[in-house]
Each structure stands twice: as C-alpha cells, then as structure tokens.
Design a protein that fits this description.
Blueprint lengths: L3 H4 L1 H5 L7 H17 L6 E7 L5 H18 L10 E5 L2 H11 L10 E2 L1 H9 L7 E5 L19 H6 L4 E6 L13 H8 L4 E6 L9 H10 L16 E4 L3 H15 L2 E5 L13 E4 L2 E4 L20 E2 L1 H4 L4 E8 L3 E3 L5 E3 L19 H20 L2 E9 L2 H10 L2
Parallel strand pairs: 1-5, 1-6, 2-3, 2-4, 4-5, 7-15, 8-11, 8-12, 12-15
Antiparallel strand pairs: 9-10, 13-14
Length: 405
Amino acid sequence: MRNQPTNAATAKISPDLPLTPEQGQLVQQILTFTTSHLNTAGPAVFTIYGDAGTGKSVVLSHLFNRLQVAARTQTTSPLAGTKNYFLVNHPEILKVYREIAGNHPHLLKKDFQRPTSLINQIAKGQVQPDVLVIDEAHLLLSQADHYNNFYGNNQLSSLLATAKVIIVVFDETQVLRMKSFWTEQHLAQLVAPFPHATYRLTHQFRMQASDDLVRWINDFTHRRIGPLPTDVGTGYDLRVFDDAEQMRQAVVQRNNEVGLSRIVATSGYPSTLDGGKHYVTEGKFSLPWDQYNYTSTPWAELPQTINEVGSIYTCQGFDLNYVGIILGPPVSLDTDDRLQINLDRYTDVEAFKKRDDLTDPTEITRIKQQLILNSINVLMKRGVKGLYLYAHDSRLRHYLHASTA
C-alpha cells in the first residue's frame, strides 16, 4: 500500500524537516544578510546556486517560515511587521508550498505567489513587499510574455525595483524555455549594481545514488557520454530497458510498493495544448501525456497519473521514489558514439519561441540544444531510489544497455 504521508511532496520540503549543519548555518547567514539590508538604500540580493536535488527548496522553506514567524510574532525583531512573499513560477510547486502553509500557523497561502501575480499587484499599488524569497529563479521570465500577462522585460528586474531584499535560488541547468533563458553570467550582471552575496550548495540530497552516477548524468547532459558507472550507490536501482512497456510495468510495481513512482519522457511525441489526449507510443507502450492538473494536489501525487506520462512541466522540482524515463526522438547517438540532439524532432513548440535579443543562428542552435539537454537533466534527477531508462534511438539504447552488462 502507498504510504502517502511519507511520500507526499510536502514532506520533502517542509520547514519541520531537520536541517544539516551546513543548511542551518546558511539559513542563519541569509537571515543576518536580510536584517542588515532592510533599511539600506536600494535592494540587496542573496543568491543560492545548486544543482537539482542539493536541498535548495528545503533551505528556502525553513528560511521563509523563520521570516514570517519573526514578522508576525516577534515585536522586537527587525523583521517585525514586514510584508514578505514567497514566489515560484511553477504551478505544481506552488501547490506544494500552499499546502505547507495550511499546516503552519504563521504561513498564509496568500504569502505564496506566482511572480507575475505579485508584479501586477505591486503595479496596482495593492502590495509593497519588503522581502522576497524566490524558488526556481531560473524559471523567471527574461522577456515579455503576454500569454502569462507579463509585459515587462525581465521579472527579476521588475521585482528588484520594488523589494528591499530578494533571496533567490538558481540553477542554469534547469532552464527549459527561451522565454526564461538565463545563465549564471546574466544573473550576476543583473545584480552587480546592488549589494549581493552568494552561496553554492553541492551535496546531493535527493538521489540515493553514488557521486559517480550523478557525475555521469551531468556529463550526459553536457553531451559527454560514457559507460554507466559500476558503482551507482548502495541500494540505488539503475536499469536500462530494451522495451518501454516492460519499464512501465516495473515502475507500476514500484509504485504499488512505495508510491511516488512515475513514467516521464522528453519531448518528441505529439503534444498540442488543445484539451485532447496525445500519446507517447513506443512499441507496445502507449500512454497519454500528463493532463492539465486543475486540482490542488501535485500531479505526481494523483493516483491516476500512474497511467500518464509526466513531463518537465509536471515533474520539475519534485521528488519521485522511482522514475522511468523515455529518451525520445530528439536524442540519439551518431556513428561515432557521440550524443546527438535533433532539433527537428522536438515537439514542444513553446520551448523555442523567438527572442528579439538573440539573433546569431549558431548561438540560437546551441541554446536550443542545451535546453533539451537541461530537460533530460531535470528528468534524470527525479528519482530518490531508482532511475530506469529507455531510449527511442536504437543505437543509444544498445549503447546504454551494453554499458550496464
């Protein structure tokens, strides 16, 4: 039977979780930074860098709870009476934080917002924030996006013009769309005029995998493919499948045993935002893409989604116990055993929308290829206990399978 309280996404980033000494010191460092810049001219920025699974979100969860407890209960604190908000530009992750808020007396669901919503409230004079905490800042829009009602040039720039202190977490390897194209260099240039500090988290908390396997994933998503490591971590389950349906059956078994196990895939299969079902099909395997989730429960925690294929848009930022990944048609191996990214086979049209500030065709191609590789990085690092792989490309599938023999 599924153990929901243990597997719930809220349990993974709750402010009630114990912190490591490093994480606890980081929270205190950020609090000191925040209080020392509340009354200085101009905004101050604290940036936390770190790969997927390095504990960034749990640090922010603890930090924001501390901020709001001080703001709402500690009358002698420099934070007393401050108006603080937690922002994340990902609807599924926002659901998790709002659920956490419902279980903590000094966190309100309205404290947690999408960036565009808060920016528009500020523009109307409805709120004036003091401290902003931004999770997944690499998802902030870096150009106007009328579809999402953002008419500025850069969401972080808009927020810098209003808040006194901003704390962001950032990972450029999780940038997935041209409209939110960021690099560490771009971020550093943007905050350079303001008081700022940085910290880089490096320890992998999510995956119970060996450092060798994490390194292999990082290399793979930078087009440096090599044999899978022999040491994948004690108890970590790494498998390569020749048959996607067999992989699905293995994931279903894991889900029945421990819960939070799902099939996910890269782009490269029919996908249109028309309200209909579009299927990922590989031989006998055929399941629909994840459907838009209108509930307050994150996609991965809905029992029926064991019969769907997750995407970066439902899985980014979440822990799964076991993840089965279909590497779709855009990813292949050439005759010299080099990883090849086929842009013409990518079906996520939203990912590659044109930017006026990017005009060099060679650079645009490089960025598009890296966005695809970033999506693979996001998906490969979802599994806490295990990673199952199936590749559409027969040459890549054979290479991966042979390297585990």
